[in-house]
C-alpha cells in the first residue's frame, strides 16, 4: 500500500462523524476478530461502546481490548443462554437510555456439522447454527428497536458463501443466506422508524471462527490471487465499511449486502 490511502483514511477518521453515538458490539473474541476491527473504527470516529464477551474463557482476551477501547459497558453475552442478550440490553438501557448502532458479528456451528457435507448435517447442529448465527440477530433487532426512537443502524456479518457455493463452507452457506434474507426483511419492517439494516460481507480473514473451516488457507490464497485489488482485506477495512454504513453518508441505504473483499465476488 502506498501512503495516500492511509492519509485519506486519517482525514476521514478526524471527522469524528460518530461523536455522541452509542454502539453495541457483539462478537469480539480477540484482537483478530472482525468485531474488534469495527469497534476500533467506531471508537476512532467518536462513538461510545458497549462490548460483550462470550463467557469467562475468552474474557481475559477481550477485557484488555475493551479497556483499550474505553468501553462504557463490558458484559458477558452468550446469545444461546436464555436472558443474557436481554440482560446486556437492559444494561444499555439503564446506562445510556438509547442506542445508535448494534453490530452482530458472531457465528457458530458444531464442528462435526460444520466440517461435514450439508447433506449429512444433523437437525440439532443445523438448528443451533441457525439460532446462534441468524435468529440471534432478529432478537438483537427486537431489543434494539425501542432504544432507537430516532433511528439507528443494525449490522450483521455475512459471507459470499450465502449466495454462491464455496467449497467447505457447508451448512454455513444456507445459514448466511437466511441471515441476508433476515437483513432485508428487518430493513423493510424497521425502515419507517429510520432503523437501517445491513449485512457486511468480508472476504476471507484469518480469525478464530475461520480456523474451524476445512482448508481455509486455500480460500486465503485464492482471494489473494483472484481479487482485482490484489490484497487481502483486514479487520480495519471491514470496520471502515461498517462505520460508513452507520453514518449520515449512508442515510438512504438499507437492506444491502456490502462486500468488503477487494472485488473477489465479481470474479467468475
Ligand atoms: P471470531 O472467532 O473472532 O468471532 C466469532 C465470534 O462469535 C466470537 O467472538 C465468539 O465468541 C462469538 N460467538 C460464538 N457463539 C456465540 C454465542 N453463543 N453467543 C455470543 N457470541 C458467540 O471470528 P470472525 O471471523 O471475526 O467472525 C465474526 C463474523 O464474521 C461471523 O459472523 C463470521 O461468520 C463472519 N465472517 C467471517 C469471515 C472470515 O473469513 N473470518 C468472512 C466473512 C464473514
Give the number of DSSP strands. 7
Read across the widest sheet, the strand sequence of neighbours is 3-2-1-4-5-6-7
How many H/I helices?
9
**Gyration radius, in Å:** 18 Å
List the helices and strands and how they pair.
Blueprint: H1 3-14, E1 22-26, H2 34-44, E2 48-53, H3 59-68, E3 73-76, H4 84-95, E4 101-104, H5 111-114, H6 123-144, E5 152-157, H7 172-190, E6 195-202, H8 216-226, H9 235-246, E7 257-260
Parallel strand pairs: 1-2, 1-4, 2-3, 4-5, 5-6, 6-7
Helix pairs in contact: 2-9, 6-7
Defining key terms:
268 residues; alpha/beta; globular; Rossmann fold; 9 helices; 7-stranded parallel beta sheet; binds nicotinamide-adenine-dinucleotide; 42% helix
What do these coordinates show?
By secondary structure, the protein is α/β, with parallel strands linked by helices. The chain has one domain: NAD(P)-binding Rossmann-like Domain (Rossmann fold, 3-Layer(aba) Sandwich). Helix content is 42%, strand content 14%. The chain has nine helices and seven strands; from the N terminus they run αβαβαβαβααβαβααβ. The chain has a seven-stranded parallel beta sheet with strand order 3-2-1-4-5-6-7, sandwiched between helices. α3 (59-68) links the parallel β2 (48-53) and β3 (73-76). α2 (34-44) crosses α9 and α6 packs parallel to α7. The radius of gyration is 18 Å and the shape is globular. The protein starts with a helix and ends in an 8-residue tail after the last strand. Bound molecules: nicotinamide-adenine-dinucleotide (NAD).
